[in-house]
């Protein structure tokens, strides 16, 4: 079941979905580290890294590039480099969280990160508000109001559109729909959007560090693959001959087309005209996942039991139950006889 993965451009490598073909001894220093990796992280997906230089976004139409420039985050958003999926998994597998510090070990090299370390390595502004859980620092902040202020549609129009998409007039059905739930952001994500929108200073080093530390064995995907390359280089980890992928492909770049999908608009970059999608218009389809190239396929699942196997199991279960009932009946008979003096 050796599925080969190869990258194009600078940096080439191969990987296999078989544990036997992956030399864990070069990645870990202890047996317990290897066992944890194999149990929880070997099959985890790497979140596809994205970047944007904002060059293709005209200033007279798109305002968010200016916002990120004011916040000092343009270089971070525009950062793209090779990334190393296996080492990313090793980093998260060996991650330990303690008193605001993240430690890990990659190829025997210890890594220790604090919020200030993150800011220095990524060259982003230090200081700013430290978000504690989901407590908002603004008195007039309303998640509900801000969420719908981001949309061209009113709340009433939004729900009518969703009802039409999902079918029926039952709002409870709309609320509980998996598709509808996937559209919602977490409280912390909404607050960060609000902070960006109002030029509010945020401790981004702490925000990134906290987000990293939240991705343990219970979380599905692993973020910051390309950012971790910068961390690996900072700690002088040898990246030679490691499985490596380049971000030169167009699919790694945030484009106007992708932004159009998220915003529900169609922007003509030739005429600079914007068309908003009306309720009757077809909504933009989400971007297809194309990260299988650097995520190994999951191991084959065991075959499902056949009908005959199920019937055999039920028949055996029935036989066992009848035997136990027979034994219980015999014990009850003996007990009744003893109570009668026989």
TrEMBL record:
Region described as Disordered: spans on this chain: 280-306
Protein name: Uncharacterized protein
